[in-house]
Design brief:
This protein has 86 residues and is mainly α. It has 4 helices and no strands. The radius of gyration is 15 Å and the shape is elongated. The two termini are 26 Å apart.
Length: 86
């Protein structure tokens, strides 16, 4: 576990990480659905680099959720990067 998790009640850490993980899995499933329905360029109006960025979130959202569930710092870092990308 990372620093603040040691000083916070366990039920609060589990609740926050669990809710964040569920939301990240929902985001990942939305990106996967877009990829399956519309192919490698699901956002026709967006430039190629933006399509690549948003499509890569299908993997990175799920990865961030798994790291959060395991209590790894990388989960928080990836979740923050995901917020910036969205």
């Amino acid at each position: 576990m990372i620093g603040w998790m040691h000083h916070t009640p366990r039920w609060a850490v589990i609740s926050v990480c669990g809710i964040a993980a569920v939301l990240l899995f929902v985001g990942a499933s939305a990106h996967v659905t877009d990829l399956l329905c519309h192919g490698l360029r699901p956002y026709d109006w967006a430039p190629g680099w933006l399509n690549l960025c948003w499509s890569s979130l299908a993997l990175f959202d799920a990865l961030a959720a798994v790291f959060l569930i395991r209590g790894k710092r990388r989960g928080i870092d990836l979740a923050c990067a995901d917020l910036a990308a969205n």
